Structure prediction request, 366 residues.
Amino acid sequence: MLKRFFLLCSGADIPLLNECSHGEQNKYVGIGATVFFTAVMAAIAASYALYTVFDQVLIAVFFGLVWGLLIFNLDRFIVSTMRKKESFKSEFLQALPRLILALIIAMVISKPLELKIFDKEIQQVLLEEKNEMTLNNQQQIAQQFTPQRTALQTEIERLKEEITAKETEVNNLYETYISEAEGRKGTKKVGKGPVYKEKRAKHDQALADLAALKKENQAKIATKEAAVLQLQQQEKNSVTNSQPIIDNFGGFMARINALNKLPWLPSFFIFLLFLAIETAPIFAKLISAKSEYDLKYQNREDILKNWILQQEHQRSVLLATDTELNNKVYRDLQEEEAIYQQKQQMARKLIQAQTDSFLQNHQKVL
Prediction:
């Protein structure tokens, strides 16, 4: 049962192969087993690849089986359509498109399995990329809010500097009128004279202005500090909302790129392994001599080809003979007077009928 299944997978003519030796049958059993297990590996690889994309087991398994069947059909077609030729060069040229197709299939099959084999290393590369993306994202978002925040901070500093400048002015006026009262500066007369009162009035006015300025600027500062806090919260929310996108970074293409950043030699050997598996049936037929099955298959094709050529030749001869006989018959009929008279009479009746019809149509019009 298993042997017949693998023979079916090989694409060989089973009734013809049953007439061959057991060694010949075992060779095609091996070819069929290679085709079958290559399709199984393709189904597993495709299922894993699709699982990383859709994250759904049933969907991944279903389309993985479809892909495995497609690869099975292609491999079976490649092996079953190869025929042994008289020279290796002609056989290789015949197999070259199939080898290219096998190369593509091997690449498609091996890549998802490489992703699974090097999953831990890929996760490390993805983690580093996510960290880098997180830092870049924070910097980009910060750059969006920096101009507004800087403008607010500058305005707050300006308001604070106005208060500081006014306080310095008030302190200077205080020192002025105190010095005048003590006689250290100004008129240098001790006591609270008119000059003292004038300077004291300037100080009191500046002090009142300072109180008003403080009240006004502190209200503005509180508003702008609230705006800064709001910008900081918006920046934090932007970082929080964009972080899930970075956390979910790790799809099929991202994993492929991460795999390409790893040392290429292990992946290359895995690819060579699948390439060897995929091309094994083709090379087995290329390097092997004409076997019993090939000779019998070619003999049957030659018999069918000769029979078809005979049929075509017989049809061409029959057509030529029939054409010659028909030509001779019509040449003989041309010389018979009775047939000529009959044709002439029929033509006369036809012309008369056409004339009568033409006349009747014109009479109706008139």
The chain has three domains: 2-118+262-289, 142-251, 307-365.
